[in-house]
Amino acid sequence: MRRPRGPVGILEVGGGWDVATSTLLPVRSRDFTGLTTPLAADPPNLAPADDHATLVSEVVGAPHATYLGVAPGASQYIAYFDTTASFRSAIDWYTRTYGVGIYNMSFGGNALSSTANAPQNQNNAGTFTLTAAGSSRDIVLDGSRFNFGAPLAHSMHNITVGIQVNDGDSGVGDFDRNNLFLAITNGSTDGAPLLVNAVFNGLRNGQTDTSFATAELTPADQATLLAKFNAAPANQLTAQIVRAVNVAGDGGVGTGNTMTFTNVNAVMTISQRNNAGLSQDSLSLDWYARQKDVLFVKSAGNVGDESRQITDPGDFFNGITVGASDGDFEARASFSSYWLNGDNGTAADVRKPDILAPGTEIEGRFQDSSDGTSFAAPFVTGTAALVVQRAGMTLADGAGHDHLGVKAIILNSARKRFINVPQNQYPLAFDNSGSAAEASDKDYLDGNQFRAAGPGPTTAQWTPSTWTYAAGGNGFFNTTNPLDDEQGTGMLDAGRAMVQTDGGKQGPGNVTPIGWDINTVGAASSVFYALDFPIAAGTFLTATLLWDRLVDETSGVDPRAGELDAVDLFGNPVLRDLDLFVRYKTELIAASRASLDNVEHLHIPLPAYGDPGDYEIMIRQFTGSSVEYGLAWWTVAVPEPSTYGLAIVALLGMIGIVVRQRAARTKACQ
Question: Could you tell me the pTM of the whole model?
Answer without folding.
Answer: 0.82
